[in-house]
Design a protein that fits this description.
Number of helices: 14
Number of domains: 2
Radius of gyration: 20 Å
Strand content: 15-25%
Structural class: alpha/beta
Largest sheet: 6 strands, parallel
CATH architecture of the largest domain: Alpha-Beta Complex
């Protein structure tokens, strides 16, 4: 049993909601990552085992290195197949919103999601969920991943008896990717308890690690080398690393979804660096990935200056300015945080 206990009213509501077979849609945020897709597919398998009809509908495509998970081939992509996505949402009797806390995070699918008139359930680990967004909220920012939160919930209500290898592999993937292979400070003894429960279903951790991290394309590795050599800037006065990825750079190296995954973390591997930021041109905007060490909150910068949010040490944002202008805007605000960034070094 999990040592994590949920609010009794929340538990009672979810059990009652799913007490009879339902048409269920599970959705997650734009550009699903390992936690988003892993938690969605993992929950899908559990709900199917409970007798529900379940469809995973995502706002946009996900990286190819996630397509080995059982059920991924049946996921409906709103961008590629809007008619099917809208049809499933219109027929749903329950909608689960996983790994995001604001309807704006589904981007172009937001109107369709907000038009849903059936019960909506939020399961998420990000700070500050939008009030009134869903009818039921399982919002626990202390969790390192949404997938871990789902397993704790399953164990608490007794539905972990429906776990099997396919669902366990999906949920393991979500936890592994969102905790940096279990190295972030969000990992607790409870995380390892959950992992132990999943591995009892036959999960092979070595196989999953290989499928996620060791299936790079040749062009992706060339792109990584180019970015590290040509597009990484050190702002030593602030202990900050900046990466840029222009659309022309990505076209040159035949960019595919997921090729930018993890690049920003290389910045944090450099001695004394406390913040790393990746600016990339995507979908007509500049998308920004922030990472930090220690107590410095990149979430605050993302929220205040770049229409974003997230966690203290991992956040995202966006800008409608040009790539160079966006980078300049970020650099121009760093003097406001200079003392805090430098004190991070001395306080370690």
């Amino acid at each position: 049993m999990s040592n994590y206990k949920f609010n009794q009213e929340d538990k009672k509501a979810i059990i009652e909601l799913l007490s009879s077979p339902k048409e269920v849609v599970i959705t997650t945020h734009h550009k699903p990552d390992g936690d988003a897709l892993g938690s969605s597919l993992g929950l899908m398998h559990i709900l199917k085992a409970l007798g529900h009809q379940v469809k995973v509908v995502v706002p946009s495509e996900f990286p190819a290195f996630l397509n080995w998970m059982n059920g991924s081939k049946d996921v409906v992509d709103f961008i590629k197949n809007p008619k099917s996505a809208k049809d499933h949402l219109s027929k749903a009797e329950v909608v689960f919103c996983l790994d995001f806390n604001n309807p704006s995070r589904v981007e172009k699918m937001q109107v369709e999601l907000l038009n849903v008139k059936v019960p909506m359930v939020l399961i998420d680990h990000h700070l500050d969920p939008k009030a009134g967004f869903c009818n039921f909220q399982f919002s626990y920012p202390s969790m390192g991943s949404t997938a871990e939160l789902i397993v704790h919930l399953l164990m608490d209500v007794g539905w972990d008896q429906y776990l099997h290898r396919d669902s366990a592999e999906c949920l393991y993937t979500g936890i592994m990717t969102d905790t940096g292979s279990f190295r972030f400070n969000s990992v607790t003894d409870q995380t390892h308890l959950v992992i132990s429960r999943l591995m009892k279903e036959g999960v092979r951790n070595d196989r999953i690690h290989e499928l996620i991290y060791d299936t790079n394309s040749f062009m992706r590795m060339k792109f990584l080398g180019y970015t590290l050599n040509e597009k990484m800037q050190m702002l030593s006065e602030y202990n900050v690393i900046v990466f840029t990825a222009s659309q022309s750079d990505m076209d040159r190296f035949e960019h595919e979804p997921g090729d930018l995954e993890g690049i920003v973390n290389f910045g944090l591997s450099i001695k004394n660096i406390k913040v790393a930021v990746l600016f990339s041109e995507r979908d007509g905007l500049v998308k920004i990935s922030f990472r930090s060490k220690g107590t410095f909150s990149v979430k605050d910068i993302a929220e205040k200056y770049f229409e974003g949010g997230g966690h203290r040490n991992a956040a995202g944002g966006r800008s409608k300015l040009k790539l160079a202008e966006t980078v300049k805007k970020f650099i121009d605000i760093l003097p406001l945080y200079k003392t805090e960034l430098q004190s991070e070094i001395s306080n370690d």
